[in-house]
Automatic annotation (TrEMBL):
Pfam families named among the record's database cross-references: Glycos_transf_2
Similarity comment text for this entry: Belongs to the glycosyltransferase 2 family.
GO function term, MF aspect, one: glycosyltransferase activity
Naturally occurring in which organism (per UniProt): Pontibacter akesuensis
Name recorded for this polypeptide: Glycosyltransferase, GT2 family
Length: 279
């Protein structure tokens, strides 16, 4: 059984829609664990009244994404989980997603599997995996190179986001849980999957497992929506800033091969300092 871990803080409408989409799965062999980090919008009451089957763990309001996910993962592992999926609450799940994850897990039982991401507003693909080349500091976006007739099955990648990430227990037994000390919010999923890959685990995007997301609702998109000095500061230094310089530096020093560190840092700093005004 897959244990699905979803950290939440308010935005109960998204959480409800996510859970309703999970109720519509053709394969119901899963258990949902919500980590509610101090929501004040009625999330707790909604979960209790409308989704009594969901396990709810309570945070103190200071967990952020990574610690919340880790709390749910540890609970799942204590229950004997062999498969854990991390998921964001602003995700809608295609009715075949769980079934397709089980299907391909059987083919690659030790691999980490991500999902094909569609824009909830128009059903168009917006994320299909990436391959990072440390030497050239470039990222190949699979959706830009894969013909439409090849957008099925598994495709290897170098890292994966945590929005709907299937992780076998053997991965946790080998490398532990996510690094919440270095990466309390952003980049923790990319760091974890890079770490897993170095430990010998394969990573794939499962193009047969689909999710729908709201890209304009992300915290970083909100920060970029109004170009102010305050938001620029948040972009570079806030714990939820997508261009957080501290997290990027830690990520590079931990994951980048040593010969390429100086160039990767210099290039990454430039992109974060200047890219805010270009997007």
């Amino acid at each position: 059984m897959i244990h699905i871990v979803i950290p939440v803080f308010n935005r109960k409408e998204y959480t409800k829609a996510c859970l309703v989409s999970l109720q519509a799965q053709t394969n119901q062999s899963f258990k949902v664990i919500i980590v509610d980090d101090g929501s004040t919008d009625g999330t707790e009451e909604m979960l209790r009244n409308e989704f009594p089957e969901v396990v709810v763990l309570k945070g103190d309001g200071g967990l952020f994404w990574t610690a919340g996910v880790n709390m749910g993962i540890r609970h799942a592992l204590k229950e004997g989980a062999e498969l854990v999926m991390t998921m964001n609450n602003d995700v809608l799940v295609d009715s075949e997603m769980i079934a397709q994850m089980y299907r391909w897990h059987k083919e690659k039982p030790k691999a980490l599997l991500g999902a094909l991401e569609l824009d909830a507003s128009n059903n168009q693909p917006i994320f299909g995996g990436e391959r990072l080349n440390w030497k050239t500091n470039t990222i190949e976006h699979l959706l830009q190179v894969l013909p439409e007739n090849e957008r099925k099955g598994l495709h290897p990648v170098t890292h994966l986001p945590g929005r709907s990430l299937l992780i076998p227990r053997v991965v946790f037994d080998t490398i532990g849980v996510l690094d919440q000390e270095r990466f309390p919010h952003y980049i923790a999923d990319y760091d974890y999957t890079h770490t897993a890959r170095r430990a010998g685990f394969e990573l794939f995007v499962n193009y047969d497992a689909k999710i729908l997301t709201y890209p304009e609702e992300s915290g970083e998109r909100q920060i970029r929506s109004s170009k102010t000095f305050k938001n620029y500061y948040k972009h570079l230094f806030d714990i939820k800033g997508g261009g957080n310089l501290r997290d990027f530096t830690r990520f590079t020093l931990k994951n980048c091969p040593p010969p390429y560190v100086p160039y990767h840092l210099a290039n990454g700093y430039a992109r974060r300092l200047l890219g805010y005004f270009l997007k």
